[in-house]
Amino acid sequence: MAIATVSMGIALGISTSVFAMMDALTHPDPPFRDVDQLYTVSFSVRVADPPPASVLNDGVLGLDGVERVAGWQPQGNGVAVMFGGYVRPTLVGMVSPGYFGLLGTTPRLGRLFSEADHASEDVAVVSDKVWRRDFSSRAAIGDATVRVDDRVYRIVGVLRPGTDRSLTPDVYVAAPNRPAGWPWLLVRLKPGVTVAEFQPRLKEMNERLSKLYSRAPKDRGIGAYIRSLRPDPLAVRDFHRAMVGAAACILLIACANVAALMLARGLARKRDYALRLALGARPLEIGREVIIEVGILALLGCVAGVLVTSWFVGLIGGAMPPEMEWQGFLQPQWSWRVLALSAGAVIVSVGVAGGFPAWMAARTDPAGPLKEGSGSTTGRAGTRFRWLVIAELAIAMTLLMSTSLMQKSIRLMERYDFGYPVEQLAIAGVGAPWRQDSTSLEEMARRQQQALDFIRATPGVAAAEIYARQSCGVLQNVIVTDRTAEGGPSLAMGSNARGTGGCAAVGPRFFRLAGIDVVAGRDFEAGDLTGAGAAILDQNTASRLFPGESPLGHKLKLGGWRSTADWYTVVGVVRNHRLGFDQHPELGADTTATIYLVSGFQQAISARPDRRPRGSLSMAFLVRMSGNPDSTTLAVTRALQPLVPGGGRAAVVKWNSGYYEMLRTEDFLALVFTCLGLASLLLGAAGLYSVVSYVTGQRMREFAVRVALGATTRNVSRLVLREAFLMAIGGTAVGAGFGMWAAFLLWDRMWGIYPVDAEALVVAEAVLVVTTMVACLVPALRAAKADPLEVMRAY
């Protein structure tokens, strides 16, 4: 009884937790009051003489149907935000008085801004994502602070989970309590006003302001765009389906445990059933009695399930990294839908677990038990449960296979070798919207060199070079060489082409800075910037484009043979490596193709003087740090701030930060599926133990006779373990095939392995077999200690 109750509790608790996570995914709970009345309004001003922001704000506030307006704006350009000594690329928003009051939200911890806070300007509110990521989701705010540039803000509140999906900033500071214009507005419509009624009024305002402020021929007018704050449901992906399937499998194992218990009780009460049927009881009454007993077990399991749900949800909530939110994994939420699904799971469990035992009990032959003698001592009773136990272990093996694969994937990620030292590398970026009609290539080149000089002069920076990832467009998605016309190979570089790592534009001495070995030829030099163009390939690309010969001195073109793309001369070959960690997991560094081109606006001026800028300039640089990475990151961010005009941003990100983010997400998924796999293993082992224990009790007379005839304790225990081993092997054999099939649902979450993996299969089988054998040791020892005199006396 205890095993069946605990099994149902674990299964119902886990399934309810999974229901809560899926409900948060498909029916996100709005964290704001009357969310259907809440909207954001952003402006697009494309006129030479733009109006003050206050004019736009007053125009929205004056529209019919608007109840309240609040606003926010970024806190400066390229600010450096530090949490506890760690620099993070974070958007800081300065909010107007009444911002959170308009939202109608409540804090997760602490409080939101008051009127006094807007006068002091030394407090901040952070998002739930920041609190989980940078403050380990601790239970109290305490003395937590955030440093924005040279200013330290005391954190007074943490927003509720879910607000991150609707609001843009991660850190909020109180704006001074004075009238101002805001580039981003929050609008609360009056009750009863719909967005369909409001949008025509907003459009009319756009047209009126555009006519008033558009004076130059190139003016494109003024636009205001509206967006609802109701969070959109996220798409259900394969690993979500795998998680739901795992919860259903655990529920099936628990049902099988209860069914085995009820079948065993049915065998023990077979004479009682036969007698009652002989005295006139109806089979339906016998079956209903079994269903009621299973229902009572399920209700007891619900009580245990509440504790399991609380533990599992707490584990998921505490371990979930912020990055999981954008990968479709949200904090669990409770709703009537979750309760309804849980109630349905209980009803289905009662039907599945009690249906077959009730049917078996109802079809008892009243004359049958009187004809049976001591057949229960022959061991035939065990065969009645063998198929049930094999099914349980097969399901457990299916889940253990996925667990083994996920754990192997994590180990491979942790041991990953980039091919060059990355700990002291960072990417510094500047995004600045300069006008096309006022910025020349020469001016862009000057700004790029100025930014590079600023970075190199920053304390703690050992070296810096240009690094523009995938900035060299490939025409027609193909790369040809001077050998292609002679029948040589070309290389597909489209988004759907497998085995292509992309193209990067870099500066002179880039590979020396990055620590990537040049195995043939040379690194880029300063003279390449004013030449006809130079390219460097990795080993894999060189062997694919120039098989059987050295690529040095040959030419390649980023486009088809008849395209207008420039020709580049190959000057070097570098060791295979990865530029980043966003390639397809199954592709290793020896299978990706990467091409480097010398870069810089100086090279663009030399090669194509007629080429014009596109109206914006985004610059990126690879930085090698010699000092403390966090303090150097902060210093580089500050050094770039003078180069950022209005509307632009400067940011510095550690090179391996993306890798660690991916590692955290994969580690979390591995934790979830490991918990599911261990739960299935525990329930499967419990089911095998209960069946073997029951069969052993039924065969004690047989074991006593064997001992009396000279059998040793080893012989008797071997009989019990052999029966358990056969069931375990049967379960692993059936479950292995299903496990490899089900693992394809998690393939996009695995790194460097294929779902059909021999090592993962062997590990899963070994864990299952060893665990089940350990679970059967107690019944085996009890059988081995059978005393012939006591057993015979009991009969």
Structure write-up:
- With 795 residues, the chain is of the alpha+beta class.
- It is 47% helix and 17% strand.
- It contains 23 helices and 24 strands.
- Strands 1, 2, 3, 4, 5, 6, 7, 8, 9, 10, 11 and 12 form a twelve-stranded mixed beta sheet that branches. Strands 13, 14, 15, 16, 17, 18, 19, 20, 21, 22, 23 and 24 form a twelve-stranded mixed beta sheet that branches.
- Helix 1 packs antiparallel against helix 10 (336-362), helix 1 packs antiparallel against helix 18 (657-698) and helix 7 (238-268) runs antiparallel to helix 12.
- It is globular.
- It starts with a helix and ends with a helix.
- The model is unreliable at 373-382, 434-438, 495-501, 581-592 and 600-615 (pLDDT under 50).
Q: Judging from the principal axes of the Cα atoms, what is the shape?
A: globular
Tally of DSSP helical segments? 23
Distance between the termini: 25 Å
Beta strand %? 15-25%
- Overall helicity: 40-55%
Q: How many strands in all? A: 24
Please identify the oligomeric state: single chain
The helix/strand class is alpha+beta
Low-pLDDT segments, ≥5 res: 373-382, 434-438, 495-501, 581-592, 600-615
The chain-level mean pLDDT equals: 80
Whole-angstrom Rg:
34 Å
